[in-house]
Amino acid sequence: MAIGIAAMVMGLVIILARSVISSKATQQRNVFGQMNAASPSLGRTMPLVVGGVILVCGVLVLTGVLGVQ
Questions:
Q1: Do residues 8 and 62 make contact, with C-beta atoms less than 8 angstroms apart?
Q2: Terminal alpha carbon distance of the chain
Q3: CA atoms 26, 32, 37, 39: torsion sign
Q4: pLDDT at 20
Q5: Fewer CB within 10 Å, N- or C-terminus of the chain?
């Protein structure tokens, strides 16, 4: 139960902090920043996608569809 709640909280934090994450990811100080700066829409949407997947996994753990061993 605690793992499901933690996953939901992490998913919400990633979704709410996506602007901070994307601004840090598109700074051109390293190779990854240069790659993300070439495609900024991907840098903005990936935190939303990852946070959504983590949030759904947390809900599925709480409902018992996914099991944690």
A1: yes
A2: 12
A3: negative
A4: 84
A5: C
